[in-house]
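Complex record, two chains
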Amino acid sequence: MHRFANPARFTRLADRILPFAAVGTVVALGVGFYLALFVAPGDYQQGESVRIMYVHVPSAWMAMFIYVAIAVASAVALIWRHPLADLAAKASSPVGAGFAFLTLVTGSLWGRPMWGTWWEWDGRLTSMLILFFLYLGHMALLNAFEDSQRGYRAAAILALVGVVNIPIIKFSVDWWSTLHQPASVMRLDGPTIHPSMLWPLLIVAVGFKLYYLTVVLLRIKSELIAARLRALDLATVKAAEVQGQAVQG
Amino acid sequence: MEEITAFFEMGGYAVYVWPSLALTVVIMAGLLIATLRQLRNRQRRLAELEARGVQRQRRQRPAPDPTAQPGAETREARP
C-alpha cells in the first residue's frame, strides 16, 4: 500500500485510470438516464414521479458509500500514517456532501407529491440530514487549523466517530417505520423491485460510482500539487531568510 | 408532438421530476468543473515556480557521501 505513497507513482497510476473512469461515467450515465427516462415504466401507484428514484436512490447510496470510504481512509491515515489516505479523505468529502445534499433535495421533491410533505422528522430523513452535517463538519475541520496535519487528524477522528450513523441510516426504515419506505433493492432475500426499474437504477448507480472515482482521482492529484506548491513556497521563504542573514552578517 | 408534450409533462409531476434531474446535473457538473479548474490553476502555478527556481535547488543538493557504509543488501546476502 505504501508503494502508492510516492506522489509521482500515484499520479502515473491515476493518469492511467482516469480516461477509462471518465469514459465509463459518460457511457453508464448516458445509458442509465436513457433507460430511466424513456424505457422504464411509470409506477402503478406513483405514476411518473417514480423517475425521481433514479437520481434519489443512487445519490443516497453514494452519500453513504463515500462516507464509509472516508472513514476507511481516515483509519488508514491514523493507524499507518499513510499520507495519501488523508488526501483521499479530503478529496472525497465535497463529493459526498454534494450527493447527501442531492439525496435530501430530490427526496423532498419526491415526498411533496407522494407523502404530501416536503419534510418530516422521520428516522431516515433525519439520519440523512445528520450525514450531510457530518460532511460539512469534516470539510470545516480540515480547514480549521493553521497546521494542516492537525486538521487531518481532527477530521479523521470525526469521520470515524460519525461512521456509527451509517448503520443508523440503513436500518432506520426498519427501526422507525414512520414515513420512508423500507429497502427494496439491498435486501437479504433479493430485490423486490421489478427488473425493468432495477436495471436502469443499477446502471445509473454504476455511473455515479465511476463519476466519484474520476472526480476523487482528479482531486487527489490536485492536492498533491498543492502540497508541492506549499513545499516550494516554504523553500523559497527559507532561501530568502538565509540570504537575508548572509547579507546582515 | 403530443408524445413529446406528454413526456415533458411527466404525468403531471413535471415540477417535481425535472428540478430533481436538473439539480443532479448541476451539482455533479459543477463539482467536476470546480475540480478541473482548481487542478489547472495549481498545475500552472507549479509549472511557473519550477521554471523559475527548482532547478537551482536541485543543483544545491549535496552529492552522495563517498564514505557511506556499503548497502545492507550485500551484508544480508551472506549466509
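Note: Residues 71-79 of chain B have pLDDT under 50 and may be disordered.
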